[in-house]
Amino acid sequence: MSLTAYKASDLFRWIKDNDTDFFLLDVRSESDFGRFKVEGPNPIQMKNVPYIDFSDEEEEESVAQVPRDKKIRVVCAREGSAKYVGEVLIKHGFEDVAYLEGGIKTWGNLLVPKRVDGGASEYSLYQFIRPAKASCSYGLVYKDELMIFDPTKEIDFYQKFASEKGCRIVRTFETHLQADYISGSPAIARETGADLMAHENDFYGAAFSYQAIQDEQVYHFTDGGPEVKVIHTPGHTPGSTSYVIDDKYMIAGDTVFLVSIGRPDLGGKVEEWSQLLFETLGTKVGNMDPELVVLPGHFMSWDEADSNLIFRDTLASIKEKNRAIFNLDDSAQFLQFIKDNMREQPEVYAKIRQVNAGRLEVDLDEQNVMDLGKNECAASAAKK
Fold this sequence. Notes:
By secondary structure, this protein is α/β, with parallel strands linked by helices. The chain has helices at residues 8-16, 30-35, 59-63, 80-91, 104-109, 155-164, 185-192, 200-203, 270-284, 315-321, 323-326, 331-341, 348-356, 364-371, and strands spanning 4-6, 22-26, 46-48, 71-75, 97-100, 112-115, 124-130, 135-142, 145-149, 168-173, 195-198, 211-212, 218-221, 224-232, 241-245, 249-253, 293-296, 313-314.
């Protein structure tokens, strides 16, 4: 048998379908594996055996850790080590062995489109799930135009999506200056001519052109379609913004999650930003239509997804599930909750903010490394 390749989309499909016939062999270093590993909506049979352990001295012992009754799918950082280990396994009689094409970064960058609106409306609204980052971006299609919200740096994906839908990207909206992943909005604006929309409280002084959005401002497509209403919801950052689509859907960014809320301590101004967030949750979010369908910027667990693997819930349901937060009735209590849940943010976040403001340029390889790993944007730490 010869070694073959598989794609990140294949890996997601196997996990989604709960395919128990494959075994994922991660041959990265123990430290890299500990920092970030493949996760999905179902359990994964997986083991970390660093590729260095497949050297001549430890080859037999390492091979013995790999099950022979499964299809073996090998993953490494860049691809080469997975190929090396795959060839070793084939030499030892394994018959169905494949390596992840492009390495772990292809899993890190994977986007999975899910239609949110159900297909009954004149427009179509999509959630683009990024499994590796536990984050979501969005696309709103009406006739031959596409608006994007919080795109990742995988601009080829969005351009291909637009082409497949027979439309062009006309606007790209940012909910805030992202800290956990590199935004694709500036590159999309440069390559397509789309307008980049962002709040100046976060993007003032950015090294690229953008159109400053205003609270209560409404945007339209060229030929009608659903309205996109700007709702300034500061707290996670001073410029944090939500977008209400067709009075039905709320793209909430990092203000409200299905579980928890966006943490207001990432900018180092925990008291000031906590006060902003407390007021936002009380006076802005608290007065919104409880039947709005909230579409979050991140999730903490796949348990939050519905049966269609879409991350969404009504505002009323979210407030009930998070009543311990929403029932805090004064800012001092709220600040104490935030402080009780504070934890170190990844060191790379400061650098990502600089990249997203256009004040720091890094090459694609470094961007891929910076982008790896789940987000740490919720006020409540995820349960391990």
